[in-house]
UniProtKB/TrEMBL annotation:
This protein's name: Uncharacterized protein
Pfam families, sorted: CrAss_Ring_1 (PF24228)
Length: 245
């Protein structure tokens, strides 16, 4: 079973932590937020994150403005999928070095746009322009609070991670026994592993797309030029009847 794309607020998970473990101490909300980001990153499944494109359409972020070969990366960025020039839609290539030429312009080969990522910035081979970045973002609500996939394994992974963090603090202060902390730790390890497996389990439609990507009638080495738009479409062999010619 694949993830549905729905999410739950961390306030729901905090209630579960207190209800199921009987903690009577107060924890700070910013600590819970940080722990939630930690567990989402530890699970690391791509489906845990939200797809965003900086094209300004349908509530998406605006294109990244490039000035003097540099632009600001989105604050909710987790990982980059693809980048291309916003105006020409020409795909960009991730450059393997940050070295600059003597004229301080990035070297461009065969008219390809290139970029590098460093210190919360994207550095491009063109001085000015806009970048359309397809990236994975941390899921948040309209207040910027983290969201967790609405799947019991992800909910339990987050719940058990927060409970284990609280339990570790209580154990270090000699408020609970080592046996009780070990119980919290074992649940955290179990549910994070379960969430990792769920996060990489493809749906039937995803499997069909994967099959179409690898079973090709001919090799397509330049799919990057079209931003992989057609990479999962099925190819059909059309035979023309030349009889009578």
């Amino acid at each position: 079973m694949s993830l549905t794309g729905k999410h739950v607020d961390i306030s729901h998970i905090i209630e579960r932590v207190y209800r199921d473990n009987g903690f009577d101490l107060e924890i700070k909300y910013d600590e819970v937020i940080e722990w939630t980001w930690d567990v989402i990153s530890l699970i690391g499944a791509p489906k845990t994150f939200v797809d965003k494109v900086t094209d300004g359409s349908q509530g998406m972020p605006q294109p990244i403005i490039i000035e003097n070969y540099r632009g600001n990366l989105p604050v909710d960025l987790h990982s980059v999928y693809l980048a291309r020039d916003y105006d020409t839609k020409m795909p960009m290539i991730l450059k393997g070095t940050t070295y600059l030429r003597d004229n301080e312009q990035l070297f461009v080969k065969e008219s390809q746009y290139t970029y590098t990522l460093n210190d919360s910035y994207i550095f491009t081979s063109f001085e000015e322009g806009e970048v359309e970045l397809h990236y994975k973002a941390f899921p948040t609500n309209n207040l910027g609070m983290p969201l967790v996939p609405d799947d019991i394994k992800f909910v339990m992974a987050t719940q058990s991670y927060i409970a284990e963090r609280i339990g570790l603090r209580l154990w270090m202060q000699d408020h609970i026994s080592k046996q009780k902390y070990d119980k919290l730790e074992s649940e955290r390890l179990w549910y994070i592993g379960a969430a990792q497996t769920r996060g990489v389990t493809p749906s039937i439609d995803e499997l069909e797309g994967m099959k179409n990507r690898y079973l090709r009638l001919r090799i397509h080495p330049d799919l990057h030029d079209t931003s992989f738009i057609y990479s999962m479409e099925k190819e059909r062999l059309i035979l023309h009847n030349n009889a009578g010619r």
